[in-house]
Design goal:
The structure is a single chain. The protein has 266 residues and is α+β, with helices and mostly antiparallel strands. The protein has a single domain, classed as Endonuclease/exonuclease/phosphatase (Deoxyribonuclease I, Chain A). The chain is 23% helix and 26% strand. The chain has seven helices and 14 strands. The strands form three sheets. A six-stranded mixed β-sheet has the order 3-4-2-1-14-13. It has a six-stranded mixed β-sheet with strand order 5-6-7-8-12-9. Strand 3 (53-57) and strand 4 form a beta hairpin. Helix 3 (126-145) packs parallel to helix 5 (180-192). The radius of gyration is 17 Å and the shape is globular. 45% of the residues are buried.
Length: 266
């Protein structure tokens, strides 16, 4: 079973790429970020025609997350508990029920998260908001891990966990993507028991999931690995592969992110 996460940077603009990729690779579950539209404007019909169930937590122009699943989706939650009044649509989770003919595990809980960027480390509003979001998110992850079930939480975390996840650690030192505070927040998630699927398979490989649009960053491979799929131990036990699909970043009018994909032998 392939589970993918992708910050599409506008579902409408990237729809041709998204549909082509869904047809070609046929991931069973896709976790999208930055859909940048309200729920009613999301291209659910076009995606549904490919056999996907769709749930969204949209927002006009900015943010927005979605889950696409070949399996039925239940127990849908929109927003991180503890801040239900937050106008920014950054989190959605659901339980995907797996058919008994392909799985003995019954179900997998999945979530799509779009962690705030934070702007700059000295921004008086956006960087503290990022840290508060991560605190609430961590509390919720602790709750989900207590369910003792398969869990996959994919998204744009806006965190490069280590220097090997950055093309030039010196150039990015102290940025909101590599700041000590956000890296500590990522480690707190790992200390709860969530496992970085890509690093489980590729402990030292230097490959990125995001490249700036400016100055030919993709052509020079000047990127960062800030998109991750974190797994509960129960899901990690089923992990067979993890990779980053860089080809989609090379397309015209591409998202600045590319999909991160894991495979579970459920």
């Amino acid at each position: 079973m392939k589970i993918a996460t992708w910050n599409v940077n506008s579902a409408k603009v990237r729809l041709p790429h998204l549909l082509e990729w869904l047809k070609r690779d046929a991931p069973k579950i896709v976790l999208l970020q930055e859909i940048k539209c309200v729920d009613e404007a999301f291209p659910a019909i076009e995606i549904g025609d490919l056999g996907y169930n769709v749930v969204t937590h949209g927002q006009k122009t900015y943010n927005g997350v979605a889950i696409l699943s070949r399996y039925p989706l239940d127990d849908v939650r929109r927003g991180v508990p503890g801040n239900e009044d937050d106008p920014q649509a950054r989190y959605i989770e659901a339980v995907a029920s797996l058919p008994p003919n392909i799985s003995k595990t019954g179900a997998v809980r999945v979530a799509s998260v779009y962690v705030p960027n934070g702007s700059t480390a000295d921004d008086p509003d956006k960087f503290p908001y990022k840290l508060r979001f991560l605190e609430r998110f961590t509390v919720h992850m602790k709750t989900l891990l207590s369910y003792d079930e398969m869990l996959a939480v994919g998204g744009d975390y806006n965190i490069a966990p280590a220097d090997k996840d950055v093309f030039s650690p010196k150039a990015w030192e102290g940025s909101v993507l590599t700041h000590d505070e956000v890296r500590r927040a990522f480690r707190r998630l790992q200390n709860l028991g969530l496992l970085d699927a890509f690093r489980l398979v590729h402990p030292e490989l230097e490959i990125f999931s995001w490249w700036d649009y400016r100055a030919g960053a993709f052509d020079r491979n000047e990127g960062l690995r800030i998109d991750h799929v974190l797994l509960s131990p129960q899901a990690a036990d089923k992990l067979t592969a993890a990779f980053i699909e860089t080809s989609l970043r090379a397309k015209e009018r591409a998202s600045d992110h590319t999909p991160v994909i894991v495979e579970l032998a459920v």
